[in-house]
Amino acid sequence: MVLGIGIAAVFSMGIYTFVIKPVHTSRAKIKTDIERKRDFIHRYKEIFKNKKIIDARVKELEGKGQQMASYLLSGDKPSLAAADLQNILQGAGGELGLTIDSVKVLDLRKIDIFYQIPLEISLKTEARKLRDFIYRIESSAKFLTVPKLRMRVIKNNIQHEPEVIEARIETAGYILRTDSGK
């Protein structure tokens, strides 16, 4: 009799350990998987309901992205962007009747997701034209900055002639870095 009760206890423990417990565990796992998938489907349905709103927002953001890209220098390589910047500067100088003595392309700098393309230009002019030139640079359709400006006034002995200013202007434009994810 005691032996029968012992065998029944071992047999029932074996059934519990190898049959009932795994079935219960797998049912709980299946239940949580089902709940997770229901939540996923519910979120997907919400997104699908708002598809028109989301599509309109995506188009709006794409338009803003294109607008922002128009502020950058043309050319996807720094050398092409430097040539574009040089053309912009020579055009602004030409409109004011300035002669740019020299143009030096400086090393590009990484700034966030952009490359800063700096050029250093040297010119001799009067104060008013220099002011107008810097104004044209900073109010350009492209996003241009003047990080450095060095100037020296050259005195002349003629009383009614304006003083000549020798200026070195570092001007920078920007392009998107293609390696921004690295």
State the gist of this model.
The chain has 182 residues and is of the alpha+beta class.
Largest sheet: 5 strands, antiparallel
Percent of residues in beta strands: 15-25%
Radius of gyration: 36 Å
Roughly how much helix do the residues carry, as a percent range?
Answer: 40-55%
The span between the termini is 76 Å
The residue ranges in which pLDDT falls below 50 over 5 or more consecutive positions are none
Helix-and-strand structural type: alpha+beta
Gross morphology is rod-shaped
The helix count comes to 4
* Number of E-type strands: 5
Order of helices and strands: HHHEEEHEE
* Mean pLDDT, all residues: 87
List keywords for this structure.
single chain; 182 residues; alpha+beta; five-stranded antiparallel sheet; 4 helices; 5 strands
Overview of the molecule:
- The protein has 182 residues and is an alpha+beta fold.
- 54% of the residues lie in helices and 24% in strands.
- It is built from 4 helices and 5 strands; from the N terminus they run αααβββαββ.
- Strands 1, 2, 3, 4 and 5 form a 5-stranded antiparallel β-sheet that branches.
- Helix 3 (78-96) packs across helix 4 (127-138).
- The protein is rod-shaped and about 130 Å long.
- The chain starts with a helix and ends in a 6-residue tail after the last strand.
- The model has no long low-confidence stretch (mean pLDDT 87).
